[in-house]
Amino acid sequence: MTEAHDLVDKVVAELPAWLPEQRWFGGKDRPITSVRPLRTTVLRDGAPVLVHLVVEVEQGDRREPYQLLVADQPDNHDATGDPELTGLLLDLIAEGREVGGLVFAHEPGVEIQAGLRGRRITSEQSNTSLVFGSQYILKLFRKLTFGENPDLVLQRALHEVGCEHIAQPLGSITGELDGRGTTVGMLQQFLPDAVDGWAMATTSVRDLMTERDLHADEVGGDFAGEAQRLGQAVATVHADLERALGAEHADADDIERSVQAMVTRLDDVVARVPELEPYVPALREAFEQARDTPGAVAIQHIHGDLHLGQVLRTVHGWLLIDFEGEPGAPIDERTALRSPLRDVAGMLRSFDYAAHQLLVGRPEDHQLAVRALEWSRRNRAAFTQGYAESASQTVGDPRERGYLLRAFELDKAVYEVAYEHANRPEWLTVPLSSIARITGEGAVQS
Ligand SMILES: Nc1ncnc2c1ncn2[C@@H]1O[C@H](COP(=O)(O)OP(=O)(O)O)[C@@H](O)[C@H]1O
Ligand SMILES: O=P(O)(O)O[C@H]1O[C@H](CO)[C@@H](O[C@H]2O[C@H](CO)[C@@H](O)[C@H](O)[C@H]2O)[C@H](O)[C@H]1O
């Protein structure tokens, strides 16, 4: 035990320098003022010692809990890269064990094969995911949200109503934090042959760009059929979420709150990214016009951060993953009932991204810019068509909610301006040029 405590002390002392170098650390914008352990569970007390650790990271007035898996190993304490040690997590889930208040559980009726090693995936993003054999994927949430994680709650609810467009949830790891059972891990069925939508879409754009004389519908890699099927899948997931958890109609107060939230986000982002300044009047006007949307607006649980990187094409069709919502948004906002058109808008933005990111850093090429716009328009239209074909009666055809859809798309683009500014400054022109196009406020060089 003293060995475990010494290890925790050593690791915690190193965290202020180590955390900002991690892809999944969401607080790279401010210096760390202190780190303290919140919860320590010794999972293995022999060489090497394995400890599950939750720490509170303080950055001025911001305090956030992060999850770590640490081992007593010479050069690297982060045990998520050790296949033998992470294998223990799956074994504990298979056995349905509880260790020091940390509950490892499999979903009712599910049997998990133990004895597999956990391979960390290289494309790790906001969290860390481990693949076991070709069957399972375990996501370890890095920044924790007190209580049950919406990723697990929504996918469980979808599975219960038989949704065909998600990977089956198979298990979870839960620990008490702040007096609440908090999800720290989620086990799901792994789809070894899946290709993500971003890879497929950007391949299609590249095909079009190399064929200078042909149009999008004439080249081999046309994506419009897939985009339409993706629209159907997203609408079906929304209808399934409505069946599982219900839907309501937004009243005037809900719409007003939503408009105010978009304006507040705009003010906040423009204060950090002055390049957004010229578009502020047009953006405000677009957000305020959302009030004029005719007819009732449905609100329900939604995905919340839908883009082409969050959808997987399998031999059986499209799947949606990662129902956690925008990683930077507060949990109350992420779990609130919202218009499904926000997800539609997120995906429309993503088609625009896929088309225009290939122009980043290239000298101006009018022909390529025209091609990018052509690809984007064709696939956005196909996606919306597919969505309208499968939309529930409550949600209806997105094309009949033009003001709202436009406002949501611009709101997402404002979020992306902040995201690119903080993460990939060279891509800032992608959302900025979309804002210029949609608001008709002049062009931005890609
Ligand atoms: N069920 C699955 N089958 C196959 N690959 C998956 C599955 N779930 C996730 N992935 C892969 O893992 C990556 C990260 O998963 P995601 O849930 O988006 O994690 P994060 O919250 O870290 O962004 C995805 O981009 C995808 O490539
Ligand atoms: O996948 P995450 O939940 O970590 O989402 C964040 O990162 C995304 C980038 O990886 C970012 O998405 C933006 O870039 C994508 C291309 O890389 C594009 O398809 C999306 O449309 C665009 O929004 C996402 O916004 C952010 O929350």
Automatic annotation (TrEMBL):
Transmembrane segments: none
Pathway this chain belongs to: Glycan biosynthesis; glycogen biosynthesis
GO molecular function: transferase activity
Pfam families: Mak_N_cap
InterPro entries, per database record: Kinase-like_dom_sf (IPR011009), Mak_N_cap (IPR040999)
Keywords from the UniProt entry: ATP-binding, Carbohydrate metabolism, Glycogen biosynthesis, Glycogen metabolism, Kinase, Nucleotide-binding, Transferase
EC number(s) recorded for this UniProt protein: 2.7.1.175
Catalysed reactions listed for this entry: D-maltose + ATP = alpha-maltose 1-phosphate + ADP + H(+)
Residues annotated as domain Maltokinase N-terminal cap: 18-79
Keyword DNA-binding in record: no
Domain of life: Bacteria
Top-level EC class: transferase
Protein family according to the UniProt entry: Belongs to the aminoglycoside phosphotransferase family.
Complexes and interactors: Monomer.
Protein's UniProt name: Maltokinase
Native source organism of the sequence: Saccharothrix longispora
